[in-house]
From TrEMBL:
The keyword Protease applies. It is an enzyme of class 3 (hydrolase). It catalyses: Thiol-dependent hydrolysis of ester, thioester, amide, peptide and isopeptide bonds formed by the C-terminal Gly of ubiquitin (a 76-residue protein attached to proteins as an intracellular targeting signal). Signal peptide: none annotated. Pfam families: Peptidase_C12. This is Ubiquitin carboxyl-terminal hydrolase. GO terms for biological process: protein deubiquitination; ubiquitin-dependent protein catabolic process. The keyword Protease applies. It comes from Aspergillus puulaauensis. SUPFAM superfamilies: Cysteine proteinases (SSF54001). Keywords: Hydrolase, Protease, Thiol protease, Ubl conjugation pathway.
Amino acid sequence: MPVPQAEIVDGVKTFIPLENNPEILKLLCENLHISPGLNFHDIISTAPEFLQECHFQPCHALIVLAQNPIYEAARSQVELTIPEYKGSGPTEPVVWMKQTIGHACGLMALLHIVFSLHGGRYVLPNTELSALRQQAIPLAPEERAQLLYDSGFLEEAHMDAASRGSSRAPSPRDDNHHHFLAFVQKDREVWELNGGMNGPLFRGVLGQGEDLLSERGLELTAKDFLVAAEQTGCSEMSIVAVTGDDHFAQT
């Protein structure tokens, strides 16, 4: 079956939205040549007893998908406080990229994680994604966004994975009522990485032995969205935990 193509919608390259589904995220990783040691786990409850039983630890990152009313309630005011990011280069604490491709927020969430997590060690060497990351690092934000926009490799990898979800794949022209974002910890610092905002958002610092699924970790990450879901009465939200086996990581 041929891979569907992106379309130009209102002058913007637009993809099929991705599912926040561990199997689809794993497939996207395979398409992008990301280390098989990166794993994804549905968080069906943030109750401490559930998280303790599941042993999704250490949790390096979270991918959150929220229905638009939830996202807006949680982030509309926060977005106003974030200055326009102008950083670049290898000394930045995380790799942040502006999203200019329509319906690509799921891809952006994954790229933010693998480009930033542990210095990019889950990006396999001598691959197209490795070359793309190396090209992106020194670029200013606008040039970095254009690099991603122009990448046929990213387009094909995303469109293949997005078309193989558990539900019928929509058209790129269909409205998308959800938004993805990523949380990554680096040296116990927690960063929110969302290509739809003005730049990376520093959320706070974890204590010794804490990860993103600890009480403090959830407070710095998904809690705002869980509260917003309760306040708005909207239920369409999902959380995927990202863990890694360093045995498979780039050395």
